[in-house]
Amino acid sequence: MNNNYLIFFSVTLAIKAREVLRKNGINSKVIKTPNKISNKGCSYSLVIFGDINRAVDIIERSGIKISGIIAADSQ
After folding, report:
1. CA atoms of 51 and 59, how far apart (whole Å)
2. Which of 75, 71, 74 is nearest to 46 (CA)?
3. DSSP string, 10-73
């Protein structure tokens, strides 16, 4: 797995986070969280195309709750 994922409890939170990142120059894509990376049931993720640490910082500062982080370098 070569991607960085940020996991959210709802598609609404994932879309809001994607828009916050887009406004800050970070590309991402909303997907249904693959079962192989999360056992939290129905959740949605952002695949981050860029600096995951910067993405997490931006999203947390915007007040959006991230329920999980899967970083490619921690695999």
Report:
1. 12
2. 71
3. SHHHHHHHHHHHHHTT-EEEEEEPPTTT--SSS-EEEEEES-HHHHHHHHHHTTPPP-EEE-GG
> Residue 70 sits in which domain range?
4-74
Looking at the structure of the chain, the number of domains it has is: 1
Which pLDDT tens digit goes with each residue over 29-57?
999 998 887 666 679 999 999 899 999 99
- Give the CATH number for residue 52: 3.30.70
User: Quick one: residue 42, left, alpha or beta (phi over 0 = left, psi -120 to 50 = alpha)?
Assistant: beta
* Mean pLDDT in residue range 9-27: 97
pTM for this entry: 0.87
Give the other-Cβ count within 10 Å of 38's Cβ: 17
The residues facing 32 across adjacent strands are 44
Strands 4-8 and 68-70: antiparallel
